Write the structure tokens for this entry.
Amino acid sequence: MYQLLFETECQEGLKQYGPSKEHRPSPIVEMGLFIDRSGIPLAFCIHPGNTNEQTTLIPLEEQILRDFSLSKFIVCTDAGLSSERNRKFNNFGGRCFITTQSIKKLKKDLRQWCLEPTGWHLKDSLDTYDISRLEDTAKNRSRLFYKQLYVEGNDGKRDIDFDQTLIVTYSLKYRNYQQQIRNQQISRAMKAIDTEPKRIDKHSQNDYRRFIKKTSITADGECAANKIYEIDQDAVQEEAQYDGFYAVYTNLDDDPSEIAAVNQGRWEIEESFRIMKSEFEARPVYLKRDDRIKAHFTTCFIALLIYRILERKLDSQFTCDEIISTLRKMRVTSIGNEGYVPSYTRTRLTDALHEYAGFRTDYELIKKRTIKGICRHSKE
């Protein structure tokens, strides 16, 4: 889900105060995206910021099933959209689900099974592996280890009326990434202890300040004159034990390594939201009427769709920033009745864009009738 902040004091219609991820008091509207495995956006939904995003999933899925005439549908979501109701809906009629499961929130026995270093598998191999003995080599970093457990009518917290398979994966590359992020947060926490002691006490679940421990009493149990702040090594070790692990629940019977690979494609959704927020500058906006809010989200969706299609046509050879910045610079300058001259530098990317579009704007001189022909064909 994507939260869009509206800089206005009004609070009616779609604009409702809600739990903003930016911790800002402005009215917000949330946007949900449905994206296929290749990263192409299929549909979107919007709802007020004070409503539960879980309730938006099923109506959107029903609409997609009707519009695309799908016989089989696999929805892949994060934990925020993995309610029991949503999983039940996708456990019927050819629909399936793959949903992220926090290992920390599993029952103790399942959590211990996930973190057990023995009994791991690799795709196309009958051997089992002990991940505690893995060397940090390029070969091992490219491997995705997994194991699975059939769970009868239980999601790790309560009984439910359908069966699932718990699949947990382990990756040295993912472990190293998490360690790097945490080390950066610890460094930031250490800096905050020295420079920002007044801002340490309040923090969110994933904030760097979660690694800071506050001591208000002395070793003798007496109240300390000043609060003492230090890195909480217990919190660091507690979090480090989950490095490299990733768990999902699914009702699919496919190869677990393939299911894990499918779920890894969820990063396309996060990237799409980042593109809209950064490259498309989709927020903040200054809108009040619901019809204009809907028009704004529709424009964002269409822009994202066009970009994703263009990205695929260019064989994913260029980054989002390269494509968008190049398109913005591809301008021509009028020189009167003579025509137009390009005002940009020709590159490998502009050549690829011209080849896909079927016309060129990088000639030394472009006649007016040529530009008119390009504009006429673009309208057809």
The CA atoms of residues 18 and 50 lie 4 Å apart.
